[in-house]
Amino acid sequence: MTAHLVILPIIIPLLGGLLMLLPPFAGPEKYQYRRVAAACLILAQLICSIVLMLSVITTGPTLYAVGDWQPPFGIILYADLLSVMLVVLAGFLGLGVTIYSFSGIDRDGKYFHPLIQFQLLGIYGAFLTNDLFNLFVFFEVLLIASYTLLMHGEGKQKTAANMHYVILNLIGSSLFLFVLGTLYGITGTLNIPDMAVKVAQLSPSNQLIAQAGGSLLLVVFGLKSAMLPLHFWLPRTYAAASAPVAALFAIMTKVGVYCIFRVYTVVFGEEAGALANMIQPWIWPLAILTLVLGTIGALASTNLRILIGNLVLVSVGTLLIAFALRTPEATAAGLFYLIHSTLITGALFLIADMLGQQRGKALDYFVIARKIKQQALLGILFVIAAMTVAGLPPFSGFLGKLVILQSATNTDERLWVWSIILLSSLATIIALSRAGTTLFWRYTKSNQASQAHDISKWKIGGAIVLLGASPVLSLFGASIVEYTNNAAAQLHDVPQLIELMNLKGDAQ
Amino acid sequence: METLYVICVGVLTSCGVYLCLRGRTFSVVVGLTMLSYAVNLFLFSSGRLNLKDAAILGMSDSYADPLPQALTLTAIVIGFAMIAFVVILSMRARADLGNDFVDGNEPPDTRKLIKPNRDKI
After folding, report:
1. Per the CB < 8 Å rule, is B39 touching A133?
2. A181:B39 CB<8 A
3. A291 and A271 in one domain?
4. Which three-class secondary structure string do you get for A165-222?
5. Looking at the domain B2-114, which fold is it?
6. Same domain for A351 and A324?
7. A218 and A366 share a domain?
8. Separation in Å, CA of B103 to nearest CA in chain A
9. CA of A184: which chain B residue's CA is closest?
10. Both A119 and A172 in a single domain?
11. Nearest to A256 by CA among A98, A11, A86
12. Contact flag A144-B82 (C-beta cutoff 8 Å)
């Protein structure tokens, strides 16, 4: 059983999701059964991934050769500290989302829970796989689930947003295949560490082709992670999605960022000979501009969900800056910030939905509307979330930004990183306090507030699960930073990975 | 043969890109289909083009690389499902939004805006 632990996070949602399509769970009136099944499945995944995490901590990175085809030929699942951490994070986010959807949102469509499972399957797979074509397949799995989840619930704007999202991602998938063809054509392998070995030995004419392929790959991952010129789809799509779906999407951009970290550290990293750090000149301006544009978008937003969508952009920009610094310390800082920002943007989407529910037709637009009924409860949740996302102490956002600021070492980097991140934090505080003032304190004098329903316990529970992680992150800050330091060191130690895969023989 | 192959892939790709940039969903869907055809051909060629070699060891002196064939098959299946989805989605968008533009709203008729209305002068 322990030998197959690596593949369990992929198998459980796959079989569980399929099972939920079958008669005992199918049909609109069987929603209670599906809820129980979904809760069991998500808990099982979470337990499996935590056990996997513990085993990786004690015994080091684990390889799993699917079908026992050894590297570099077979598809390899590779669990190191980084990928396991992200699998646990995705599972935790899935738990919060599932709890939140029990309030009745899952009854808008009968395939909600199976689709959430398939989406999680794609996310886990993308984190665990160590084969580029397999990565493409898992991308498609998570994308097709996200296309359908985006349509969950009613509303014309969902169709319009989904149209853009689907077309963009289909073009992105075609580009991804072009990249795979190019890279396979000159390196003859799809295994990521094996490709790292081969890329370092290319002849100068082939290096040019590899460079073209690698740059195109940045476009693909940039589209997934909403990097600057490819970010226009994000705020509208996330604002259109129903709350639990938007919260789950909070980790989708992070999948793109993770792939940038993985591929451009291992394949085109320090060891890649002439192509070492080839995207470095591109990633700096793009990261800073993404951050700036996200901040401007946050200031200009007309409703809370678009504001949060822009905050997702801000977090992507910050993560790309952490990548651009190219030291293990910066990567570790970025990983800590990644955990924090995923959970907090997820929680914010849930809070925005609860606010909208109690404001009638005004939803979460920044206009004067009727008073929110449960003002104290939602106010406290919103204040904590806003302080966390803006990076005020004592919450995890402060710690996350602090470690990134600390990881910039030389003067030039400091000048850029400190000024941009601090100014963007200030602008975020302004945008959020303006939003909070309008949403909570400016209301009409009528007594209509009493008509709104109380918020379901499930919704509050789901939001608290995600929000509660933030104080925990800062309480155990030291040990988590130590963990991400180890994970980053493992990621940057490419020779060790190549040795583990037993590829040294090939290299000579 | 290589030249012909390259021209085919190039023409398909450029047609696909052109059609993807159009405003109506129908041409965009056709463009996406062409892109996926082009990419399948491209993937297939990444194992070098061979006319007479089998993809099985021991059948002939040299053998063709079987992996691109497997990759192409996977890509065809996935591409097929995605195109089917986008066709249904664009029909839904046509019904929901009342027009078949990708943006969801019809652009204003520029000719009417620019030309003065002669009846009124």
Report:
1. no
2. yes
3. no
4. HHHHHHHHHHHHHHHHHHHHHHHCCCEHHHHHHHHCCCCHHHHHHHHHHHHHHHHHHH
5. Helix Hairpins (1.10.287)
6. yes
7. no
8. 7
9. B46
10. yes
11. A86
12. yes
Q: Identify whether residues A341 and A237 lie together within a single domain.
A: no
Q: Taking the CB of residue B109, how many other CB atoms lie within 10 A of it?
A: 9
Contacts of A164 in chain B (CB under 8 A): 102
Which chain A residues touch B if contact means CB-CB below 8 Å?
133, 137, 140, 144, 147, 151, 156, 159-160, 162-164, 166-167, 170-171, 173-174, 177-178, 180-182, 184-185, 190
Nearest CB to A167: which of B28, B36, B67?
Answer: B28
Q: Are A470 and A45 in contact (CB under 8 A)?
A: no
Question: What's the CA gap between A317 and A313, in Å, rounded?
Answer: 6
Q: Are residues A386 and A414 in the same domain?
A: yes
Residues contacting A32, CB < 8 A, separation 6+: none
Q: Which of A230, A186, A59, A45 is nearest to A128 (CA)?
A: A45
Considering the domain boundaries, does residue A263 fall inside one? yes
What pLDDT digit, counting tens, does each position of A136-179 carry?
999 999 999 999 999 888 788 889 899 999 999 999 999 999 99
Map out the domains of chain B as residue ranges. 2-114
Q: Which of B15, B33, B42 to mutate to test the interface with A (most CBs of A within 10 A)?
A: B42
Q: A428 and A326: one domain? A: yes
Nearest CB partner across the interface for A163, out of B36, B75, B89:
B89
- A422, A398 in Cβ contact below 8 A? no
Give the domain extent around A125.
1-278
Q: Render each residue's pLDDT in chain B as its tens digit; 121 residues.
A: 889 999 999 999 999 999 999 989 999 999 999 999 999 999 999 888 877 777 777 777 788 888 899 999 999 999 999 999 999 999 999 998 888 888 877 777 777 776 666 665 5
Secondary structure of A435-460 in HEC code, one letter for each residue: HHHHHHHCECCCCHHHHCCCCCHHHH
CA dihedral A15, A16, A22, A27 (to 10 degrees): -150
* Burial track A269-280 (b if 16+ CB lie within 10 A, e otherwise): bebbeebeebbe
d(CA B116, CA B121): 8
Residue A93 shares a structural domain with residue A205: yes
Number of domains in chain A: 2
On whether residue A411 sits in a domain, the answer given is: yes
pLDDT tens sequence across A54-91: 999 999 898 898 888 887 788 899 999 999 999 999 99
CB pairs under 8 A between A and B: 86
Does the N-terminal peptide bond of residue A72 adopt cis geometry, omega within 30 degrees of 0? yes
Q: Which of A318, A301, A320, A326 is nearest to A420 (CA)?
A: A318
- Contact of B52 with B87, CB cutoff 8 Å: no
User: Last residue of some domain: A229, A263, A278?
Assistant: A278
Task: Report the alpha-carbon distance of residue A101 to residue A244 in Å, rounded.
Answer: 6
Given an 8 Å threshold on Cβ–Cβ distance, is A140 in contact with B78? yes
Per the rule left: phi > 0, alpha: psi between -120 and 50, beta: everything else, A77 is beta
